[in-house]
Write a structure and sequence with these properties.
By secondary structure, this protein is an alpha/beta fold. Helix content is 39%, strand content 13%. The chain is built from six helices and five strands; from the N terminus they run βαββαβαβααα.
């Protein structure tokens, strides 16, 4: 339905709705030719978000740069690899969809560095990467290693979360 050929691995790179992820996006795009050299059948969708101009990014063969993708979560749910920042919403969606991903928490961002990392570890999703210690070459190597990785060990959420939250709120009311 989304137009992807299941015979060709899909990598999705997205950094959220702010410009803070520009450097990660550029590093992932720089890594793409190295990834493609190992996996010439792969394709990549890089999403810049509303604050970054898609035309200001390179678009090497096999990589499409788009500013906005309606229903991005659907594209992430069929990705063979996602490269993302460390936001809780995106990383948990990937975990629950059991998709392989690399996440880069923003340095000094308490929620991403501590809370998100803890939540992901609880669910068995531990591919946290330090942006400052990662070159385009090492990102490519990590991406190739993670592309299509087995995610069967990701722990699903405990059912009934909405009911538990409602009960807690009801007690307060």
């Amino acid at each position: 339905r989304l137009g992807y050929d299941p015979e060709h691995p899909l990598v999705v790179v997205t950094v959220g709705g702010t410009a803070v992820g520009e450097h990660l996006l550029r590093k992932a795009i720089a890594a793409w030719p190295l990834i493609r050299a190992e996996r010439p059948d792969a394709r990549c969708l890089a999403v810049t978000g509303p604050r970054l101009e898609p035309g200001s990014f390179q678009s090497p063969p096999g990589l499409e740069v788009r500013g906005y993708v309606p229903g991005l979560y659907e594209h992430l749910s069929v990705a063979d690899l996602a490269i993302v920042q460390g936001g809780l919403g995106t990383t948990m969606e990937l975990t629950l969809a059991r998709r392989p991903f690399l996440y880069f928490p923003l340095a000094g961002h308490f929620e991403q560095v501590h809370h998100v990392a803890h939540r992901l570890a609880v669910h068995g999703a531990r591919r946290r990467v330090d942006y400052a210690a990662t070159s385009a070459d090492s990102l490519a190597a990590l991406a190739i290693d993670t592309l299509g990785a087995d995610t069967s060990a990701y722990r699903p959420p405990r059912p009934g979360a909405a009911q538990r939250a409602a009960a807690l709120i009801a007690e307060l009311l």
